[in-house]
Amino acid sequence: MRTLSPATVLLLFFTLTMAKAPAQERSLSLTQYIDALQQLRHSVMSSADTRVISSLVQNLPPEWRVHCAGRIFSVSTHGIDQALRDYDKQRTPSKLAELTSQLDMLLADARAMQSSTADMSGERNRLTEILSRHEFRRVRSESWYDRLKQRLQRWLANLLERIVYSSAFPVVSRIAIWGLLALALAVAVFWVVRNYRQGNIYTQFTAAPEAISAKPWRDWHAEAEAAAREGRWRDAIHLSYWAAISFLEGQGLWRPDLARTPREYLKLLPQGDAHRDSLQQLTRSFETVWYGTEAATAETFAGTSALLERLGCR
């Protein structure tokens, strides 16, 4: 009987655990997801056979569905797939480093999530304490007026769609289309201008033209609390994140650079730095609310405030 090589064994294991299957069967626990990432990294690092990398590309699913804390997260594999293909074409150290860097980043996020879910009792008590403060006393749920606005917006969108695809009255339809488009444009301009004035977004972000730390972190934090009092939780979390960046930058942990992304700020802190864990959780909260689809709530802002205090912003 022929003996299988170590690379072939690794490939078979990875294929069995990560093969494309129905979505419900691909749901992994957080531990299984970490094991899969480690196995993939080990397979890449130990493989000297180009056929192994090609097989990994073919068997990589479009996404991983990870079950954690009662929720299911979808992790796209597009970046890893592209890095694997690039490395398959050019087996160079730089391509390998790019691939392992992506895997290491996913592993770091997964391990941070694993450690953050280990014991949340202290965090819950801290959230309860923060939510009892005066800035949260006037928090209200969605009003009838908010619901009415949403219904009117949906009705207008449906009406426009019916008019655009209607050919019964061409001339009338064209007049109605252009009239409604002009009205919609005027309403959109009014809404944008009003929100910029009410939120003071322009002055908030142009007050520091050379560096985030040119505006003290306390000013960022004060603006975040003002936004929270008005129920603008998304803006409050956004401003809280920049308060953390201003605080750390003011301590000289990096040179100011407005072109950096949140992930680049995080990479500037070494693994053993005392601020890294808090900044990593702040970055994740900010990204999921600002760039993702997670809704910003009073509890989300309370968690952000707790992380700011743990970072040293008191």
What does this structure look like?
It contains 14 helices and 3 strands. Residues 1-25 and 197-209 have low confidence and may be disordered. It has helices spanning 6-18, 30-46, 50-59, 78-89, 93-116, 121-131, 144-164, 170-199, 201-206, 217-229, 233-250, 262-267, 276-290, 298-311; strands at 27-29, 63-68, 71-76. A 3-stranded mixed sheet has the order 1-2-3. With 314 residues, it is mainly α. A hairpin with a 2-residue loop joins strand 2 (63-68) and strand 3. It has 3 domains: 6-116, no CATH class; 144-199; 201-311, Four Helix Bundle (Hemerythrin (Met), subunit A), CATH 1.20.120. The chain is globular. Helix 3 runs antiparallel to helix 4 (78-89).
Strand percent estimate: under 5%
The helicity comes to: 55-70%
Q: Tell me the total number of β-strands.
A: 3
Helical segment tally?
14
Main sheet summary: 3 strands, mixed
Strand order of the largest sheet: 1-2-3
Task: Put the structure in a nutshell.
With 314 residues, the protein is mainly alpha-helical. 67% of the residues lie in helices and 5% in strands.
